[in-house]
Amino acid sequence: MDARPEVEIALIVNGVPVRRRVEARKSLVDFLREDLELTGSHVGCEQGVCGACTLRVDGALARGCLMLAAQCDGSRVETIEGVAEAGEIADLQRAFAEANALQCGFCTPAMLLTADALLRDDPDLDATSARRGLSGNYCRCTGYHAIVDAVLAAARARREASRG
Amino acid sequence: MAEGPARIPEGDSYIGRSIVRPQAARLLAGRGQFTDDVRLPRMLHAAFLRCPHAHARVMSVDARAALALPGVVRVIAGEEMAGLCAGWVGTLAHFAGMKSARQHPLARGRATWQGEPVVAVVAESRAVAEDGVARLVVEWAPLPAVTDPETALAPGTPVIHPELGDNLAFSLELQSGDPEGAFAGADHVYRDTFWMGRHTGVTLEPRAIIADFDPTERRLTVYHSFQAPNMMQDILARHLTLPEESVRVICKDVGGSFGIKVHIYPDEMATCALAVLLGRPVKFVADRLESFQSDIHAREHRVTAEVAVRRDGTMLGMRIDDLTGIGPYSVYPRTSAVEGNQTVRLTPGVYRFADYAARLRVVFQNKTPMCQYRAVGHPIAFAVMEGMVDRVARELGLDPVEVRRRNYVTAEMYPHTSQTGYFFERLSHEECLERLLALSSYRALCSERDALRARGIYRGLGLCAFIELTTPGPAFYGVGGARISSQDGCTLKLEPSGAVTCTTGVTEQGQGTDAMLAQVVATAVGVPIERVRVLTGDTLVSPYGGGTWASRGAGIGGEAALQSGKALKGNILRVAGAMLQCEPDELDLRRGKVVDAVSGAVRLDLAELGRVAYFRPDTLPKDFQPELTVTRHYVPRHQGFAFTNGIQLSHVEVDVATGFVRLLGHWVVEDCGRIINPRLVDEQLRGAIVQGIGAALFEHCVYDDAGQLLTGTMADYLVPMAAEMPDIVVGHVETPTAFAEGGFKGAGEAGTAGAPGAVLNAVNDALAPLGARVTRQPITPEVVLRALGTLP
Q1: Chain A within 8 Å of B219 (Cβ-Cβ)?
Q2: What is the Cα–Cα distance from B332 to B335, expressed in whole angstroms?
Q3: Which of B679, B682, A100, B659 is nearest to B690 (CA)?
Q4: Which residues on chain B are in Cβ contact (under 8 Å) with A139?
Q5: Which residue stretches of B78-148 are H helix?
Q6: Last residue of a domain, one of A59, A84, A109
Q7: Residue A96 sits in a domain of what CATH number?
């Protein structure tokens, strides 16, 4: 029983093909942080509650602590590092900085990915729906007010840009 | 004492501007570097077997199966660990009569709370270390657990540490004026008992530490998610018997702290001892269950309060009795007496009645140790005080605003010393109250509340005035014998390019310390803020200091930065004078250029000055030495603390069928002295308010009678989420301190100080027409339904 089963996986992480042998029990977020040194996804509770490990799997938001790396064989995984470098969320990053919608920064990468998904789902979202949509991501520092302000500011900017 | 605070040099001032924090971009790109992100060569990982009982004897530990596991490097239990680190006692000399037992990194023979570390397993990965823990065979002999503070001192209750004689850690009685006379002469006396639930900080980044020991040089380097690196350096050196200068503590990005990461934890000390033993880096990161079981808890208090009043609402006197259970040990080195001590000393401070008596008892119990968490004592003190003020208003049919106005320490009374000896230089209760009423349209909300009541909608408004203890001097810890610095230094170096590098003893955990200091330095030196770089949190390079806690960053670190900036500017102008062959006072430094002080004409670029000073000093007079690195220190000595004040308003709606409380809005007007960065102050207030709301409505470390923690996950322990939190409107009054040139005070805890009282009063206002009242936090639906009589 001490033999720890391993599996070989091949996936695309931030646009780069990756092939690794991983322990079958290893979570996706541990795989990203430990094996690929992508430390922007954070581990806050390992139970899928706090949302700090939120990332994208095949375009949809997922909890990196609730998925096994082995489940992601053949998948496309995007983390804050890839999304930020691609410039996809530059407007949200700017809005967060200007509103001081982050303090310690630990929840921030996941909060940005969630906010981006909310804006894609509903470009016209209001404060109530932003608050509801962000409720799967805990922030212990800001009290959320500034985060909601930042998300709404980015929503306005996206709407204006699309009308542009 | 000066007439008013000296002005920071006018001109290109960054003081009072909402500068964006320099580290925001990094954190927003996932490029933060938290302790768990650090990986060192040959690094090992520690995991701990923790006691599953609230109180148990450790009969035997069989580690054979764990050691047989490939990848497990070492297993160590209490006795062997005690040979590496002899433990500590969490008492301070200025708490007369205080006692606590010796605490060890790993329990020796007996564990005293569910979650106390007992055995450490070190392995090549965290997963394997946890596999090793799972293979440990420990024989426990459970002992009776002391859980209820009410009976901790009763004759039949077991004594947790027999060598102490009883379960009393600390007691205190305070009296000022003539409380008996006040009660004898009162028209009315009102009495209530308040129960405050245990809760904890829940930093989203759990506690984390990496200890790296080099046996050849006998140097220990520790990466630590922590608030007070010099304190940790001192303690590691003394408890691991290393020279102080051989220990370096580095705090990189810290993922939330709130007072949780400023204490000595046995698992972290064990991790450091293991690194010394093994000569390899060892990492320990608490998982969430470990966080709930072993991060300090706070605020388990039962407070009985009585007020004596005249029929016009004038308060004549007050008596309180505070009983608090702190777990089995007083936490080292700040002690677990501080929370109760501050509770009984802060409670009456907003008001001017003179007659006050308080009793405090701090007792041991078999639960997770309690210690200082954000706003230490304040949330209890002001929930009790303001709860009683609203009780008075309700009983006498008076306006709660009017009762406060009638009893405040008023503007003409400053400087003022409180009933318990706190010195208030100048507070602004009346101004904050008036500002709050306008900001929130309070009277309109009252009318709306009254109209809705007729329709069976129960809304309530709750005020909570408060004071906040900030910027503590050496009387806080130093006089009690703790080696915790109340002074801080700031070193500024002019780089050859004209940039300014700032190192300081205060630290950054998200508050915006770096931005705030850059603003002060850029203003004082006279350079663009983009040319100032701030580095904190490394004991090898920072000036010695206390770190960031007790709202001390701006008041102490800010003033040190201001004085250092002025000194550097003076030295720069002396170099410029030598270069330009004029008197330094004919010159000024503005926006990174040396200018003519009168005309403002540019005389010299700082980069040119740097080039000459560092690379061509041969061109300067032979007897002139440029000094372009300066250090200045600051410690508050004119008052024990720089008190601040403010008032909050909570607006709620109570669903009387379900007991659910809906938050409709929250307002705060706060006076933290001169504001360096308004947005950062607003966000400190908002975040702190939500932590206070969490305490008021949701957060609770629930134990069963046997001392088992029932809330070990985030699904059980409710952290406030975005959807249920209200918008928070922030207003300011600025009363700078005249004791320090910058006029800065602290702002980190005011929100948490007042929010629980405001929510409590709002809920009670909503319930008033139904004759119900709650005095228990968190105010869960069950608490509301019991108050309404819906539940027995």
Answers
A1: no
A2: 5
A3: B682
A4: 204, 722
A5: 78-84, 126-134
A6: A84
A7: 1.10.150.120
Domain tally for chain A? 2
Of B36, B510, B719, the CB nearest to A103: B510
The strands making up B488-494's β-sheet, listed across from edge to edge, are B532-536, B500-504, B488-494, B629-634
Alpha-helix runs per DSSP H in B117-197 = 126-134, 179-184
Looking at residues B99-119, what average pLDDT do you find? 98
Structure confidence by residue, pLDDT tens digits, B290-313: 999 999 999 999 999 999 999 999
The shortest C-alpha distance from A81 to chain B (Å) reads: 6
pLDDT tens, position by position, A99-118 = 999 999 999 999 999 999 99
The ipTM value here is 0.98
For B716-737, the pLDDT digits (tens) are: 999 999 999 999 999 999 999 9
Angstrom distances, CA of residue B217 to CA of B212, B222, B246, B268, B281: 12, 15, 8, 22, 14
CATH architecture of B35-143+203-294: Alpha-Beta Complex (3.90)
Q: Which one of A36, A62, A84 terminates a domain?
A: A84
Best of B27, B207, B284 to disrupt the A interface by mutation (most A CBs within 10 Å)? B27
Cβ B687–A141 below 8 Å, yes or no? yes
Residues A77 and A100 both lie in one domain? no
pLDDT in tens, B160-215: 999 999 999 999 999 999 999 999 999 999 999 999 999 999 999 999 999 999 99
Give the pLDDT confidence of B676-703 residue by residue, as tens digits: 999 999 999 999 999 999 999 999 999 9
* Of residues B340, B326, B335, B367, the one with CA closest to residue B146: B367
Å between B574 CA and nearest CA of chain A: 38
Mutation target vs B (from A83, A125, A145, A147; most B CBs, 10 A cutoff) = A145
Q: How far apart are CA B755 and CA B428, in angstroms?
A: 18
Query: B297-474+638-788 — its CATH code?
Result: 3.30.365.10
Which of A39, A140, A151, A152 best probes binding to B when mutated, by most B CB atoms within 10 angstroms?
A: A140
Instruction: Answer yes or no: is A80 within a domain.
Output: yes
Residue ranges making up the domain that contains A61? 6-84
Q: By the CB < 8 Å criterion, does B715 face chain A?
A: yes
pLDDT in tens, A124-158: 999 999 999 999 999 999 999 999 999 999 999 99
Given CB atoms, is B24 within the 8 Å cutoff of chain A? Answer: yes
Q: How many CB pairs under 8 A join A and B?
A: 185
Average pLDDT over residues B52-76: 98
What pTM was computed for the model? 0.97
CATH code: domain B487-634 is 3.30.365.10
Residue A1 in any domain: the answer is: no
What is the CA angle B616-B621-B626, rounded to 5?
65
